[in-house]
Every structure is written in C-alpha cells, then in structure tokens.
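Thread: Newbie trying to understand structure tokens

Hi all, I'm a second-year student working on a class project, and my supervisor (Dr. K.) asked me to get a predicted structure for one chain before our next meeting. I've only ever worked with sequences, so writing a 3D structure as a token string is new to me. If someone could post the tokens and maybe explain what I'm looking at, I'd be very grateful. Here's the chain:
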Amino acid sequence: FHSVPEGRFLLANPALAAMLGYASAEELVTTVSDIGAQLFVDPAQRSSILAVLLQDGQWFRDEISLRRRDDRILIAELAGRAVFNPDGQVVYLEGFIQDITERKQAEEALRESERKFAKTFHSSPMAMTLSTVDTGRFIDVNEEFLRFHERSREEVVGHTAMDLGFWDSSGQRSAIVAEIVAGNSVRDRELQVLVRSGELRTLIWSGELVVIKGEPCLLGSALDITKRKWAEEELAQAKDAAESA
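---
Reply by user tm_fold:
Sure, no problem. This is what the structure looks like when written as tokens:
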C-alpha cells in the first residue's frame, strides 16, 4: 500500500483489502480515511511508527494489531518506509503487511502447553527427569527426584546419571534408550539405582521421547518401591519359614 502521513490510503492491493475484510482495494481506499483510528487497535502505535519513518525514511519493521471491518483483530507484521522528493518532503509512505495471526496463536498455544508441562513436571509426586537422548545429560529434574537422590539441582542439571553414579553400568540406560528410540513403549520397568548414601533402591520407571524446542529428549518418571520390595521379601521369607516348620 501507499498512504500519506495524515492517514489516508493512496492505493492498496486486493490482498490487503481481503485481509482487512473489504470487498476490493477501491472500497478499502475510499472507506478508510484515518488509518490510525479505523484500522489500528491502538492508534498511538501508528503515531509511533510514523515518527520513526519520518525521521529517517529507512525500512522499518514492527508487529501491529489491526481491526478488520468485521471487528475481528488480526496480528500483522508491517514493513514500511517513507519516500521523499528531492526537497526532502514526504511524497508517500510505502508498506507491506503480512497477517501472522495464526503463527502468533500457535506460538501462544505452544507457550501455554510448555507452561502446563512445566507445572505438571515440577509438581508431580513422582521423580521426573528430562534428559538428552544421545548423552543422557539432565536438562531438568523435579524436586521429588532431588529428594530421592539426595542431591541439589546444581549437582544434577548438566550432568549424566553415570557422572553421578545412579546406574551400576552404562549398559542399563543404553538398553532402555535403544528400546524407546526404536519406538517401543517402556512402562513400569523395574530398575535399581544408587542414591548418594550408597543405598541401592528399587524403582518402577517409565520413559518416552518428547520434543523440546525441536530436539528429541527423554522424559522419565520413577516411583520408589524399595519399601514395598522389602515388605514382599520379608513376607516371602516368613512364608518359607512357616512352610518349612
């Protein structure tokens, strides 16, 4: 489009007219006499952009909120510049507008999803971990994981389970990751790990692949069943003793 600083269109293309809900470019040009007041959700935003354009005339980009003819709001990216004559007077403002509403909505939906994930992750009563698939480096862990392993966040994040001595052998994790990467679901797998005190504890562990910022990661959850295993062993021993008496 071309417009004048006072807020009138000189010309617009059909794509802009359709974007803003007008039947034709001619209708948009004749109907809108004050771009700031009629199209901008916040008229002051156009005034700020205009001040920048009139100052140096160079191409300028900004994200703007516009009101369509049917009162629906769209988010757009504006690229504009001021065109001057040899005397330094503004001839017109030239601009291009791209509707980015869907992209912004998708970004907000992703942020909301990430917020919900983070809340669930950190408040879970199970020990939760997020680690890189290839190296096993911990990206994040929740408070239950830290309590269980008797570690601080600084000791864990950025390190691997092998660095911290959680596994008795590197092959244990490698075998599980290979299953998950192959597309097999790992659910309720009984594993044994070492905590900081040196005690060997038994877990029920589940894991799956998730994509975080475009990178595949391993999301793990674990439930400590050590006391239950002890109780089961004591019960079995008592049963054996009774049967042999």
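A couple of things are worth pointing out once you decode it. DSSP finds ten helices and ten strands in the chain. Strands lie at 2-3, 9-11, 60-67, 73-84, 90-99, 127-132, 138-141, 186-194, 200-212, 215-224. Feel free to ask follow-ups in this thread.
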